[in-house]
């Protein structure tokens, strides 16, 4: 029985999601053979590249097992052991070579075809350039190798190619010998990377590229040459990324004492890329979306995305590269920690409060639903079928929340002592999450025994809050609980920091100091000294623990906290809770309208900064509202949210006009104040257009036409796209013509239409999927249309199932081309339990259609079958 049939049988049996062929953490064994040194020689051509490799291998420990190598789609032309040709007979994607002594030299020549590589893993072609992507298991598509992160090697890489097609030849480390004038118009460059690294950090780029160059002097006075490579025309659009890179290098020195360790740091931007970016040692490769930015083409949030991802990849140089993962179950060791570091960096660069709110919003929009559904897994999973499916919001964002809790528990100084010890102990090693926690524990003397449960347990804990008065004292009981997740029935209480304070119900001020309560038991009792004023609780301030709070509060109390809580996250949360409470019913939204008005006034009066106000004015999304109930009422949520939007729009029309006047015209500056003003002005414009006056439509049209920034142009276009007006059609057409050929901007054009609230959205998306600019092979473009549409709760979940069918069609079409892209599209269908029986059946039908399709990829089969359970 083949693997697919086994999966089908398992589904019939309704057993727990332990798929056949799963790899288990419990089965980990150290590598039998190490590879201290590797030399690679690439003779490049898009159709057929020849890779010769020379591996110095050394027996690891006392055993007589063979050397095991991984390889995928390799045409092997020869193999040699200690200089003698050997016959190699791969079994599937593995090759075993018996070796007598304790060390040997193994050599291969293989042929690979970058031009035919549509999976974008290994060596592939993107717009005439050749680039690699090796994490997690792409190196095996380049040559035979023990493709696992605990085998660390020093690399020497010679790249030879046509000098006209590939004038620039890059690899990791520092550049060595250059050979010019080789036969056939070819040239070659040799790179050496002195730092031992796992093969997933190997990289090569060849192409006609130009660089934005700069330099950085490290804390010990070493000069580093910086270069960001792209097409000549895009070089000026790399300035923001370069500034972010230099700021990141300085920040990692100042905050973590970490210095860069090579003479050069190169970044390359490419258009076809499965993920956001990749931290290859000394040669980061980026999705161009996270490098190219100027005011004309990038929104404020794009600018922030560029800076955040540049920082993230740079920070991996220590958290990921110098200290790497022992196995892929430890992925969050590098990703959770590095996301936490990039969040800290971004908070330091701009408005920390707003940044925290954005992070929380993202976590709750993506990770909480993942943790509540069939794909729930802990930040250190214990089995997987296809590791590419585990680059999830849980590993990254919940992983970062777990690190943040550690930071809160041990304090900034303790945390720094912990990271210092971690680097001291483990530099040059491939380690585990346990090693990380142990270093934190040893450096701070804290007991993190129970804290380790965060690494094992999936699911989002709930904290119920009960409050009472005893002799004037405020007694709060915090009760933590957690529902079972697939394959994990029993949940134990976790150790977490819970920041709280009291807010006076009369004064509106904080009473006494904030407390950081360390919750450990199922029930934690907190006592505040007697106060003579009625009080309200300010809970989980700064979102100190990634939990769901269950606390009783009236709308009046929530409105009061939304106006007075002195913690920005908690204040924002009060507004969210108030909005959720109103949007869950058909009640008059008056309470919400007046809370919005009060916050808006605090902004105009200068009591709150514009960025915060803009954030607070945004209603929870339809999907977030849906996540709060056991069953998503697709039409009801849409109807009630639209009604509330209209009430806020019409009830405060004069205020919105005033806000638009006050906050627009902030130019192109990227200061927190200017960004905040743009955000708030665009929120105002969206409400005004929603109210539907001719003046508002005209204002949107003028803003669209005269915008100095993409933020403002996009703000106007998004406001118009939901309307049925000539302005909408004119602006959409203009946008497409104006930005023809600019991939990142044309992606926005697809997305804004896919997210529209108009009833013809599905038909539009179907038409856009046939548009000449649509491309299923480009991950960004696929995401911009199909990925975005799946987030449009009202129209993706159209009752007749047409949205699901569209997704199923696209998923199966792209699976033949790029399984990683395809597998991601299965995720939205996994939410079927949360919808009514009719929709649930239609969603399942698409998942079943996928699992029943012959020769579907392992990536997709794993996701679809887990989603069905
Ligand atoms: N390791 C990359 C990062 O988070 C992400 C990535 C994973 C890129 C897999 C490509 C492939 O920085
Ligand atoms: Zn990362």
Automatic annotation (TrEMBL):
Keyword annotations of the record: Aminopeptidase, Hydrolase, Metal-binding, Metalloprotease, Protease, Zinc
Domain (Aminopeptidase N-like N-terminal): residue spans on this chain: 104-201
One example GO MF annotation: alanyl aminopeptidase activity
EC numbers for this chain: 3.4.11.2
Residues in Peptidase M1 alanyl aminopeptidase C-terminal domain copies: 556-868
Residue ranges of every copy of the Peptidase M1 membrane alanine aminopeptidase domain listed in the record: 241-454
Pfam family of the protein (one): DUF3458
Gene Ontology BP terms: proteolysis
Cofactor dependency: Zn(2+)
CDD domains membership: M1_APN (cd09600)
Residues of the Peptidase M1 alanyl aminopeptidase Ig-like fold domain: 459-551
Enzyme class: hydrolase
PANTHER family: PUROMYCIN-SENSITIVE AMINOPEPTIDASE (PTHR46322)
Family, similarity comment: Belongs to the peptidase M1 family.
Protein name: Aminopeptidase N
Source organism per UniProt: Sandarakinorhabdus glacialis
Classification lineage: Bacteria, Pseudomonadati, Pseudomonadota, Alphaproteobacteria, Sphingomonadales
């Amino acid at each position: 029985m083949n693997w697919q049939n086994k999966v089908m049988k398992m589904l019939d049996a309704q057993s727990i999601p332990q798929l056949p062929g799963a790899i288990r953490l419990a089965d980990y064994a150290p590598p039998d053979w190490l590879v201290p040194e590797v030399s690679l020689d690439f003779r490049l051509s898009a159709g057929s590249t020849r890779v010769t490799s020379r591996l110095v291998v050394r027996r690891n420990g006392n055993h007589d097992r063979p050397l095991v190598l991984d390889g995928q789609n390799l045409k092997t032309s020869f193999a040699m052991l200690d200089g003698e040709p050997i016959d190699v007979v791969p079994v599937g994607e593995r090759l075993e070579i018996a070796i007598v002594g304790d060390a040997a030299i193994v050599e291969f020549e293989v042929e690979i075809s970058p031009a035919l590589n549509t999976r974008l893993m290994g060596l592939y072609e993107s717009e005439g350039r050749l680039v690699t992507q090796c994490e997690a298991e792409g190196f095996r598509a380049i040559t035979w190798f023990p493709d696992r992160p605990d085998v660390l090697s020093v690399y020497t890489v010679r790249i030879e190619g046509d000098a006209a097609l590939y004038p620039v030849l890059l690899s990791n480390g520092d550049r060595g010998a250059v050979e010019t004038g080789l036969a056939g118009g070819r040239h070659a460059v040799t790179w050496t990377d002195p730092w031992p690294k796992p093969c997933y950090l190997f990289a090569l780029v060849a192409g006609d590229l130009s660089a934005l160059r700069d330099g950085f002097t490290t804390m010990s006075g070493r000069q580093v040459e910086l270069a960001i490579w792209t097409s000549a025309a895009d070089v000026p659009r790399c300035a923001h990324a370069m500034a972010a890179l230099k700021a990141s290098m300085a920040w990692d020195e100042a905050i973590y004492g970490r210095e860069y360790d090579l003479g050069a740091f190169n970044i390359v931007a490419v258009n076809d890329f499965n993920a956001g970016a990749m931290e290859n040692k000394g040669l980061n490769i980026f999705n161009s979306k996270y490098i190219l930015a100027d005011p004309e083409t990038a929104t404020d949030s794009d600018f922030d995305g560029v800076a955040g991802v540049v920082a993230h990849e740079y920070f991996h140089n220590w958290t990921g590269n110098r200290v790497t993962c022992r196995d892929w179950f430890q992925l969050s060791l590098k990703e959770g920690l590095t996301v936490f570091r990039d969040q800290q960096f971004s908070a330091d660069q701009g408005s920390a409060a707003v940044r925290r709110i954005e992070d929380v919003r993202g976590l709750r929009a993506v990770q909480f639903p993942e943790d509540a559904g069939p794909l729930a897994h802990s930040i250190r999973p214990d089995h997987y079928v296809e590791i590419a499916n585990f680059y999830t919001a849980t590993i990254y964002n919940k992983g970062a929340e777990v690190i943040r809790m550690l930071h809160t528990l041990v304090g900034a100084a303790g945390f720094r002592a912990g990271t210092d010890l971690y680097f001291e102990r483990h530099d040059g090693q491939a380690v585990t999450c346990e090693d990380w926690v142990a270093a934190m524990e040893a450096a701070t003397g804290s007991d993190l025994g129970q804290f380790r449960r965060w690494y094992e347990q999936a699911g989002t804990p709930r904290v119920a809050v009960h409050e009472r008065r005893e002799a004037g004292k405020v007694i709060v009981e915090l009760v933590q609980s957690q529902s079972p997740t697939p394959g994990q029935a029993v949940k134990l209480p976790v150790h977490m920091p819970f920041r709280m304070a009291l807010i006076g119900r009369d004064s509106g001020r904080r009473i006494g100091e904030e407390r950081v309560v360390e919750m450990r038991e199922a029930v934690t009792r907190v006592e505040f000294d007697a106060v003579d004023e009625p009080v309200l609780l300010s809970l989980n301030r700064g979102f100190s623990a990634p939990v769901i709070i269950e606390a009783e509060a009236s709308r009046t109390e929530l409105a009061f906290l939304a106006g007075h809580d002195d913690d920005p996250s908690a204040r924002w949360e009060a507004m969210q809770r108030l909005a959720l409470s109103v949007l869950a019913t058909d009640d008059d939204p008056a309470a919400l309208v007046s809370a919005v008005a009060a916050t808006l006034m605090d902004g105009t009066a200068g009591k709150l900064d514009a960025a915060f106000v803009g954030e607070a004015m945004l209603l929870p999304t339809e999907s977030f509202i849906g996540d709060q109930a056991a069953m998503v009422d697709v039409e009801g949520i849409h109807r009630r949210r639209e009604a509330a939007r209209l009430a806020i729009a019409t009830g405060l029309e004069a205020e919105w006009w005033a806000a638009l006047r006050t906050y627009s015209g902030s130019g192109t500056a990227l200061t927190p104040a200017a960004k905040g003003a743009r955000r708030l002005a665009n929120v105002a414009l969206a409400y005004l257009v929603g109210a539907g006056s001719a003046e508002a439509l005209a204002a949107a049209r003028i803003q669209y036409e005269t915008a100095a920034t993409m933020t403002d142009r996009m703000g106007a276009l998004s406001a118009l796209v939901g309307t049925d007006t000539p302005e909408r059609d004119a602006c959409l057409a203009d946008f497409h013509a104006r930005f023809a050929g600019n991939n990142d901007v044309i992606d926005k054009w697809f997305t804004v239409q896919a997210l529209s609230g108009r009833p013809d959205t599905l038909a539009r998306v179907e038409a856009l999927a046939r548009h000449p600019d649509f491309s299923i092979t480009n991950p960004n473009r696929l995401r911009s249309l199909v990925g975005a549409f799946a987030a449009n709760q009202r129209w993706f979940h159209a009752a007749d199932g047409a949205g699901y069918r569209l997704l199923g069609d696209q998923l199966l079409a792209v699976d033949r081309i790029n399984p990683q892209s395809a597998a991601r599209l299965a995720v939205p269908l996994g939410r079927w339990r949360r919808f009514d029986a009719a929709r649930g059946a239609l969603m399942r039908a698409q998942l079943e259609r996928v699992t029943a399709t012959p020769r579907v990829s392992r990536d997709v089969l794993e996701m679809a079958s887990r989603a069905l359970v």
